[in-house]
């Protein structure tokens, strides 16, 4: 087997990296790199340096400035870049921890639901309605993960929004139809699995301001109430399950805060201007000492500084599709697969077809 073939392992097969690197990271200029977003400013500063050197050597005589100006500016540039990158990585790390909190809550709730859902008497079985209710709510738990992911990516109206905003004569069918994002573009890929997890007939109300994750947590809490009435959960257990839902909603709220609260525009404007000022002053400070060597020196400095700033831009909103974003698709897929295995084994046990994970659901 080739050493570069991806070898999946379970669990966490989709969220962790198993493919060996073909090239050292120092030689990588495409996947995961930020070169594409900094090439234009680096090129422009290099061309500006060529102009400065040309003027210094052939036109205006010496146009150099005292080199002592550079340390003063470099301190300001360094402090601003450290602040920007530190703030952006904190947003990335907080978002990842919140996703872990949500996944943990979903796991805990699914575990409690499947273990506690059982017949009332010794040896009795669940009714068909109770089995369908439990299976539906475990699927809803997985659907919450997808709903959170899509909401953080501004992919709304999956499933279709409520019909309240449509005139009666123009209301669309309530059957499954292609969903749309905030730009009106059809979203047809990677949504079928998500839609299949939602209860039949569920209608979203995102067009009226109700987020689908919150709507789905209401279904979960309603199931907890029904389980308490059926005698599946005692009071403290039902209370702890409600705490898990509260933790899930709280973590989602923190992720929404990251998504909807960008770095203040005043900071971004000033940082861009300081970077531009520093890289424009630098050629004048080194042209007398380095001549044409100033061009590659300025290019390297601009590459370094704009690269650091570009990393901060990428990490600022960590919920998208970029290589450097949180691997939400893989993490959620791992959780879905994990819970689907538990649900299949629980269903087999409830139907009397097996012992269910070696008697785990006894």
Question: Mind explaining what this structure looks like?
Answer:
Keywords: Ion transport, Membrane, Transmembrane, Transmembrane helix, Transport. The chain is an all-alpha fold and 362 residues long. Among the domains are: 84 residues; 154 residues, no CATH class. Helices cover 61% and strands 1% of the residues. A two-stranded antiparallel sheet has the order 1-2. The relative contact order is 0.17. About 6% of the residues have low confidence.
Task: Walk me through the topology.
Elements: H1 35-59, H2 69-116, H3 128-152, E1 179-180, E2 186-187, H4 192-197, H5 212-230, H6 235-260, H7 265-290, H8 294-316, H9 328-350
Antiparallel strand pairs: 1-2
Helix pairs in contact: 1-7, 1-8, 2-3, 2-6, 2-7, 2-8, 2-9, 3-5, 3-9, 5-6, 7-8
Please supply descriptive tags for the structure shown above.
362 residues; 9 helices; chloride channel activity; 61% helix; two-stranded antiparallel ribbon; UPF0187-domain-containing protein
User: Secondary-structure element order, as H and E?
Assistant: HHHEEHHHHHH
Find the count of extended strands (DSSP E, 2+ residues): 2
Tell me the strand percentage band: under 5%
Widest sheet: strand ordering: 1-2
Total count of helical runs of at least 4 residues: 9
Which sheet architecture does the biggest sheet show? 2 strands, antiparallel
Give a concise summary.
The chain has 9 helices and 2 strands; from the N terminus they run αααββαααααα.
């Amino acid at each position: 087997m080739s050493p570069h073939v991806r070898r999946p392992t379970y669990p966490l097969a989709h969220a962790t990296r198993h493919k060996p690197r073909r090239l050292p990271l120092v030689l990588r200029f495409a996947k995961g790199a930020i070169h594409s977003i900094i090439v234009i400013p680096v090129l422009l500063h290099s061309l500006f340096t060529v102009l400065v050197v040309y003027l210094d050597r052939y036109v205006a005589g010496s146009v150099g400035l005292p080199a002592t100006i550079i340390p003063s500016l470099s301190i300001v540039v360094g402090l601003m870049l450290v602040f920007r990158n530190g703030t952006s990585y904190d947003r990335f790390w907080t978002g990842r921890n919140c996703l872990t909190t949500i996944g943990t809550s979903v796991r805990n709730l699914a575990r409690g639901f499947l273990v506690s859902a059982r017949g009332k008497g010794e040896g009795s079985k669940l009714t068909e309605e109770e089995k369908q209710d439990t299976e539906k709510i475990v699927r809803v738990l997985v659907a919450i993960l997808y709903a959170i992911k899509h909401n953080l990516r501004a992919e709304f109206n999956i499933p279709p929004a409520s019909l309240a905003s449509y005139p009666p004569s123009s209301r669309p069918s309530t059957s499954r139809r292609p969903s749309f994002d905030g730009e009106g573009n059809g979203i047809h890929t990677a949504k079928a699995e998500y839609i299949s997890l939602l209860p039949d007939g569920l209608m979203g109300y995102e067009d009226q301001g109700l987020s689908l994750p919150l709507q789905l947590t209401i279904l979960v809490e309603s199931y907890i109430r029904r389980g308490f009435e059926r005698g599946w959960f005692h009071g403290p257990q039902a209370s702890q399950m409600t705490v898990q839902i509260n933790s899930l909603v709280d973590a989602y709220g923190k992720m929404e805060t990251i998504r909807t609260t960008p770095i203040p525009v005043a900071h971004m404007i000033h940082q861009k201007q300081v970077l531009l000022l520093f890289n424009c002053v630098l050629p004048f400070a080194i042209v007398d000492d380095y001549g044409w060597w100033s061009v590659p020196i300025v290019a390297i400095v601009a590459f370094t500084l704009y690269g650091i700033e570009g990393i901060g831009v990428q990490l600022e909103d960590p919920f998208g599709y970029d290589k450097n974003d949180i691997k939400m698709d893989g993490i959620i897929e791992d959780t879905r697969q994990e819970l689907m295995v538990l649900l299949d084994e629980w269903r087999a046990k409830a139907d009397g077809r097996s012992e269910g994970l070696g008697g785990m659901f006894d």
